[in-house]
Amino acid sequence: MKMSDIIADMILDMFDDSTSSVQIQRNDLANRIGCVPSQINYVITSRFTPEAGYRIESHRGGGGYIMITRAESKDNALLALINSIGESIDERTAKAHLYNLSYQNIIDTKAAKIMTAAIKDVNYTGLEREKANILRARQLKQMLIAYIN
Description:
The chain has about 150 residues and is mainly alpha-helical. The chain contains 7 helices and 3 strands; from the N terminus they run H-E-H-H-E-E-H-H-H-H.
């Protein structure tokens, strides 16, 4: 298991059914896991994103902490992602979003695999890259909307 997976799992374990937010001190968590604090930052910024249904607040200084708040529902996380996609998206970014949604159990694995197959570059062969990215964004948004309904 990768260090980033261990960190993410440890943070996720801090959440329970009645808790929608957790407060962590980066240095303390890094010492407990045995990593450098910058790895904690990396995991938080890459896995606990608004698209994945999280809000991050950082309070600096002595006694500073990072507050991670989970979206109230999976639908809110999906809507946040849909709204953040914009007019165009490349394959790599779209795959990353789908991976995060699946990893956070916002969408099931089978749906993530189907959506990933639909947004692959091979499906847009013959189109200019920008036109393909525009079409991919539209299709991804529609698939996520369909998943909500």
